[in-house]
Amino acid sequence: MAGRPTLDQLVEELSRPPGPAGQQLDRLARLLLPATSAATGTRRTTPSDRPTTEELTSWRALLRDVPFDRRSFDDRFRPGSWKAVLDGLARHCDRPTDGAADLPAPRRQTVGFLALLLITLTGLAESSDRRTATAPARAGTADGSAPLPGHDCPGVCGRLVRQRPVRETIRELYRPVGGPPPDRGGQDAVAGSEWADGIDFDTLEFHEHGTTSLILRGSGTRRGGLRRPFALKLILYPYLRIPRIASTTKAYAGLYDLAGVQAEHLVPVWASSQSWILMDFVAGRPLHEVWRERTARRRTARRVRPGRPAGPGDDQGLGEASVDRFALLADLRDYGTAAFLALAELDRFLNAGGRSTEPTRRGHGDLAPSNIMVTYRDGQPVFRLIDIGANYLYTYAFGALEGPDGQFVAPEVKADGAAGDKSDVYSLGKLLAMFGGGEPGDVVPDEFYAHAPLLARFIEDLIDTHPDHRLLLFSPDADTETNAASAQHAAADPGQQSAPDISRYARLHAAFTAELDAEAARTPPTDGHLVRGTWELFQTRLTLGLFRPLAGAPGQLRRVYRTRRGESGAASRASALAAARLLAWSWLSSVAWAVTFSITIIWIVRQLDWSWGNRLVEALQQMVGGSEDRFPVLDSLRAPGYSMPDIEANAPALLVGLTYAMVSAKYYHNIFAGMNPLAAGWRAGGLTVRAALAQFAIRIQTVTGAALVLPIVLYDPRLWPINSAIGQTLSLFTNSATLLFARRALTDARRRGLSTVPSSDAKVTGLASFAEWTPSSLFYAGIVWTIGLAVYQGALQDVYVYALSVASINLFLFYMIKCGRGAAEVRTALTRATGAAERLRCLSHRDGARRA
Q: Considering the entire predicted model, what is its pTM?
């Protein structure tokens, strides 16, 4: 018998220039079917006119020998070989196929093999694209529309799979054969029976390319005589060179057989062999396709919620003034819940009732969007998980190239191909980031820290690259009271689907829902009232936030506190107490600002000597025995020489005081109101010292405005240059103390191996710009002290010029730019630092408990 054909011979033959079709096909038939005589048309065949066992073995060897990607292919043969072979295969497979079934057996079988080889090469190209760094660019165009395909999939793969010779080749080449691992539980017999009797090969249709596979669909008869649609996952033969892929594929049906199990989120498996998996067909769409379309619709149909258009600093996503915030929070709730429920069911199936004999929890291991099928019930998404088990192509043994799917794979899975008990937690965190409109990168996206800090805190606790550093804040076993309350809530609400108590994902879902409720509470309720909507438009868009000195923070904190107060459990009570403290400080600052601002405005009006007709004040004046031209009590505080009305003498003080009152309120509320440096705890050494200093510096800003403005309004306007300098000095102190804390927290987090902080301070959005505030504050404070003392001593006469300069800097540089436009970036950096400090505290507490 002639020797087996080699891939080198096949590549050489396919790379020949085009010639007479019949002659080329006969040469290929002689190569692929050594027993064939092209001249006589006779050949040795099996009784059913199928390829012989030797020929099938040689075909499998040829397919296994194909390099994994285009570069490797060209390196092995010669540059341009990949394209030449594809062109050669296309010439033979593009011929009219109406009479393909009537071709002589050698030509028909040759065409079938060549078509499968073309599909294999196409699948390898798709797999390479998914795993390379350029794959994210192919995930969609700039406007979020579907990507340009690497080939005409319906016209190539779809058309070829419908040809009878190709279906026959698939049936023969993928027929189950014996081999490792050993057969357990009669799975080989089941696979052989399903392949021979369950699959109707005449119904095979191309469905899609997988990462390592070709996925077909059709219909067949399951054991028991029930005919139903199926999905047939054929592993591309080159990947079968990897023993682990072959062994895990063969064991798949035994590991994930749902016989006797009621499962809504898992897919029943019919059988599996070394090279294929046969399962129910899910009439849904992959999550990555669904999400690409939702993102495209959101980009093309973006609109702003009535009464609160997007303002400066908003990211048109989670920004508090954007309608997208409502849509994204709704997506997080709907799709996040679907993910939690699916994982809870998988966790119960794999780990409940002694099913798992492994020391750690088993999980999915490859929870990427392409492995989640989405269906809908009553308008709500339902996830069905497919392809359970780690994908070997994303391991470091295979290069661990990143792609859209690889971003969701836990690092420990990439390290050795084995999923740990927290691997799916990592993937879940990446999915939640995607649902919130962010890119699932190495750290939580910036927009979460700036506009959704509570969700950033939750997601950050899931996606640390070190498994031991996950679930530090939201340990699913830490709050049994919350778990019980969650179960009672689910029982009281039959419409609320709850994950099983045995699953950690049920408890994580309760924590996620609490954080999402609190984050949603930060958003003001929708109000379409024309008058209020016009006022909101005026405040945010037309005046760039000029008339929002409190930045809406007191209302946000009040709603968050009310939400926290209604939750049960020890963790929720701690969160409610923390929210109450922040709210109390915000109220103190708000009251101080309101009093200061009101008195300053009244004193400005009094300088104009207008008759304002305030009967209440006149009544108070009469009660305390004052005259009509004096304000009760407060006017008695005036220093000697402070006369009213005297617009010429008092205008500089009142103008600077008014602008400083507005700046101090915005400075605190738009940057620091939600920040709690003492989340670092009291046992963090140097970090605790810096946290306490930052906490003190931040909280004194709640009353700084009142403490500095009221004396120059009520007591002596001549103090305004000195008080301006004091105010700038206190700002320098606050900026410096907060920066020291933030840098120390981030540095300590890196030292302890927390990957949820960027690798250097230069990569922390907003930290560099905030760091610039300290030297600029120092420089400005020096100028203000120098000129202010000169003005106070009467050495400088240009008082109005200086006062106007200070007021302009307060209003435009500080109020509108730094504390307005620049606040979101600064909040991003400070929220990252605070979150790192909190996770460090929990990590130290847990390590101490373990040592004890």
A: 0.86
